[in-house]
């Protein structure tokens, strides 16, 4: 900053600008509040179909978000300008005071331009004749002291001005269109984030083998502290650069293929760095600035090329970046472009005699979170884990290819009926790609982490939640849309199809995810089961919980359930979700009117039918695999009958029940949709009582039965249905008599046992026979 610019600076106009920004922020806050209350509030309550259900609603939500982001950005700009204004005025005062003190010492201060200035002595002509000696020659020390003081003031003023300018530029550039929503309480906070980013970037500029454990700990601490800070993330990421971030992680994770002695502390820091670095890079990709756009483009270009380093078997860009993106919230478009390019390359090299990623020459370990079952050599695995943490990107990546505005409406929506209607990415991963285990020597034999990651990605794409979302997060409400339903329809077509039993048998790592996915759509499945074939389905008894509900067809729903029933994990998950959903239907329709009882009868019958398909399928698969009433089959049936223990600890809120799924390969919670948005006094409902009973039973007898014959297994199923029936009528004896007169019990039993000439069709797909 030039001396005269600060010395004679008139900050009146800046003050006026600050006042304008503050006024704008207040007005935008009012607009944001009104938009949320009126626009979004009314849109959420509206029941729209067609384009209004998708395009219009999405536009309104996005517009409301823009109002909020505009207010946040205006408020942040005002605060940064106000802080900078106050600092510059203070530095101007300090500068003028310093110059005044210099003048009193007969020093002249002159601005020489381009940020430079001079301090020179202004010696009195009669200094030699002054007998006191008090006004003698000016000492060089006085000159240097004045110069240094002024230089410090100008340096601080320059820093204040430049950091404010940089922060404001970064904030504005975050969003190419609209507003970024970046929020800081002061200029110092924004400047500090940028300063720390530059310091941490210098660590990554070093040779990774020469970075000390202390430096790694410092780096981890800063990345963790600023993990949600957009300016820190962008400054750090762009300062490091695309290739350097890849070579640095490769060097830290796997230097010289283990030639160094094992250091537990370094291993601990390296593991945390993978997570912290991935989250920081993800945050940075959310910026639309020119620098970050170029960074994202370069990362994709580096993908298929080896990095030219000695570490980690000289990996490709895909090999490293896919392991970093396992953590964090990434830009959806970036993930799509990255994945699309990765798929194109993978299709070229996959299926060769020697697997392109997992082979004896690739001894790298780039994923430190794999518990010996996922070394990170296959980049597809890390990418799919990234999709599992980013539902928007996953939904986009597996979107139905045949969608149009008409097919996404509630009325007239078609199910998936042909391979051509399946997304190419999904088809390649489930039916074409050659998957191989990427385990360490002491890992789980035959386990394919990539297929487990695919399950996580599909969970995110179909439910709208990250695959590892906890119960508290899921309790925020149902996030399904017509688009997520489109992905679900493809999953049902693939795994409920003729080849479904073999696919599930060959891809056991997907079973728990498919169970969670099936549970999340149990209301739409029940709706499909409620009709006679594809006629007479009852939307009043099984209401849509979102616009553009999924269409599986009646037989498609049966077939999908029958495949899920074949596997222990998926059978448990869907059975638990079915039970929760049926209870919520009964809670919403107490036996106080004929209309309610008619709906409750349908709910119990359809619930019994779904349960019958699942249980029959489970028994038939175990009989086929182990032989009827063999010890192995009976032990497995005992475990399958213990599904109610899943309900222990379930959280009910926001129109969903979040059911823990212990023993799963995922950090799993089954999402069971409920009929009502809010369950008032959940503990006093059938649902609440069942959760309490399950919790008490699990605590009292955690072991459960060791074996069950198929006859006993079906008996327990019948008993479960009878218990629900009795609980529903517990306080309504007259209604119970009426139900008895109407043969409810026989209808429910028949729905569960599926007797009749159509039994084979009713049961769905036959068991896998190998």
Strand order of the largest sheet: 3-4-5
Mean pLDDT: 85
Helix content percent band? 55-70%
- What structural category arises from helix and sheet content? mainly alpha
The stretches of 5 or more residues where confidence is low (pLDDT under 50) are: none
Number of strands: 5
Instruction: Give the overall form.
Output: elongated
Number of helices: 30
Question: How would you summarize what this structure contains?
Answer:
With about 775 residues, the chain is mainly alpha-helical. Helices cover about 60% and strands about 5% of the residues.
3D structure, described in words:
With 770 residues, this protein is mainly alpha-helical. The chain is 60% helix and 3% strand. Helix 6 packs parallel to helix 9 and helix 16 (449-463) crosses helix 18. The chain is elongated, with a radius of gyration of 33 Å. The protein starts with a helix and ends in a 7-residue tail after the last helix.
Set out the fold topology.
Blueprint: H1 3-7, H2 12-45, H3 51-104, E1 107-113, E2 116-121, H4 140-173, H5 187-204, H6 213-225, H7 230-240, H8 242-253, H9 264-285, H10 290-302, H11 317-324, H12 332-349, H13 379-389, H14 391-397, H15 424-432, H16 449-463, H17 471-474, H18 482-495, H19 500-506, H20 511-520, H21 522-529, H22 554-564, H23 568-588, H24 594-626, H25 631-640, E3 651-653, E4 656-660, E5 669-673, H26 686-700, H27 710-728, H28 733-741, H29 744-753, H30 759-763
Antiparallel strand pairs: 1-2, 3-4, 4-5
């Amino acid at each position: 900053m030039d001396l005269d610019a600060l010395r004679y600076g008139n900050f009146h106009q800046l003050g006026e600008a600050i006042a304008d920004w503050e006024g704008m922020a207040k007005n935008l806050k009012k607009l944001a509040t009104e938009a949320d209350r009126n626009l979004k509030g009314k849109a959420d309550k509206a029941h729209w179909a067609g384009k209004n259900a998708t395009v219009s609603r999405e536009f309104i939500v996005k517009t409301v978000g823009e109002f909020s982001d505009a207010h946040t950005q205006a408020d942040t700009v005002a605060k940064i300008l106000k802080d900078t204004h106050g600092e510059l005025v203070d530095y101007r005062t300090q500068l003028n005071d310093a110059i005044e003190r210099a003048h009193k010492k007969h020093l002249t201060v002159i601005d020489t331009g381009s940020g430079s200035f001079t301090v020179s002595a202004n010696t009195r002509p009669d200094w030699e004749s002054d007998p006191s000696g008090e006004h003698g020659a000016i000492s060089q020390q006085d000159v240097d002291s004045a110069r240094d003081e002024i230089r410090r003031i100008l340096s601080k003023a320059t820093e204040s001005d430049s950091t404010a300018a940089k922060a404001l530029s970064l904030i504005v550039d975050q969003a190419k269109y609209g507003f970024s929503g970046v929020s800081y309480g002061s200029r110092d906070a924004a400047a500090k984030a940028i300063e720390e980013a530059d310091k941490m970037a210098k660590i990554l500029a070093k040779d990774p083998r020469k970075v000390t454990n202390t430096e790694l700990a410092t780096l981890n601490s800063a990345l963790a502290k600023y993990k949600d800070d957009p300016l820190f993330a962008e400054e750090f990421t762009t300062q490091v650069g695309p290739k350097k971030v890849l070579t640095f992680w490769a060097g830290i994770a796997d230097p010289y293929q283990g030639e160094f002695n094992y250091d537990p502390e370094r291993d601990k820091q390296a593991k945390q760095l993978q997570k912290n670095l991935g989250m920081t890079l993800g945050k940075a990709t959310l910026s639309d600035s020119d620098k970050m756009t170029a960074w994202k483009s370069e990362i994709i270009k580096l993908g298929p090329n080896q990095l030219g380093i000695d570490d980690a078997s000289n990996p490709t860009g895909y090999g490293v970046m896919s392991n970093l993106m396992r953590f964090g919230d990434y830009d959806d478009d970036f993930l799509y472009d990255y994945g699309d390019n990765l798929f194109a390359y993978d299709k070229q090299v996959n299926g060769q005699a020697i697997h392109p990623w997992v082979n004896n020459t690739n001894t790298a370990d780039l994923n430190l979170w794999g518990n010996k079952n996922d070394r990170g050599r296959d980049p597809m695995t890390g990418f799919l884990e990234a999709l599992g943490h980013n539902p928007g990107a996953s939904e986009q990546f597996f979107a139905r290819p045949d969608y149009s505005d008409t097919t996404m409406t509630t009325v007239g929506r078609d199910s998936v009926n042909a391979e051509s209607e399946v997304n190419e990415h999904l088809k390649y991963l489930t039916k074409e790609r050659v998957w191989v285990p990427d385990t360490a020597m002491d890992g789980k034999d035959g386990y394919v982490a990539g297929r487990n990651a695919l399950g996580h990605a599909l969970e995110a794409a179909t439910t709208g939640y990250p695959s590892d979302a906890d119960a508290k997060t899921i309790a925020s409400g149902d996030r399904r849309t017509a688009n997520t339903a489109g992905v679900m329809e493809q999953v049902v077509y693939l795994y409920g199809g003729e080849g479904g039993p073999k696919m599930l048998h060959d891809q056991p790592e997907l079973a728990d995810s498919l169970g969670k996915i099936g549970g999340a759509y149990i209301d739409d499945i029940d709706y499909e089961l409620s009709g006679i074939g594809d006629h007479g389905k009852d939307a009043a008894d099984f209401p849509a919980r979102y616009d553009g509900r999924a269409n599986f067809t009646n037989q498609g729903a049966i077939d999908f359930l029958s495949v899920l029933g074949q596997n222990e994990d998926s059978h448990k998950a869907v059975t638990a979700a079915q039970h929760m959903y049926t209870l919520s239907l009964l809670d919403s329709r107490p036996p106080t009117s004929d209309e309610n009882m008619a709906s409750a009868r349908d709910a119990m019958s359809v619930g019994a039918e779904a349960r019958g398909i699942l249980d029959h399928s489970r028994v038939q698969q175990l009989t086929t695999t182990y032989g009827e009433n063999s010890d192995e089959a009976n032990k497995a049936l005992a475990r399958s009958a213990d599904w109610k223990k899943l309900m222990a600890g379930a959280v009910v809120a926001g129109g969903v029940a979040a059911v823990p799924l212990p023993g799963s390969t995922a950090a799993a919670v089954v999402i069971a949709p409920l009929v009502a948005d809010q369950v008032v006094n959940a503990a006093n409902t059938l649902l609440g009582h069942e959760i309490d009973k399950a919790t008490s039973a699990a605590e009292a007898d955690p072991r459960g039965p060791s074996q069950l014959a198929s006859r006993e297994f079906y008996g327990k199923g019948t008993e479960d249905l009878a218990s629900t029936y009795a609980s529903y009528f517990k306080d309504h004896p007259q209604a119970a008599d009426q139900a008895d007169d109407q043969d409810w019990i026989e209808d429910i039993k028949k729905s569960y046992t599926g007797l009749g000439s159509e039994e084979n069709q009713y049961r769905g797909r036959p068991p896998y026979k190998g």
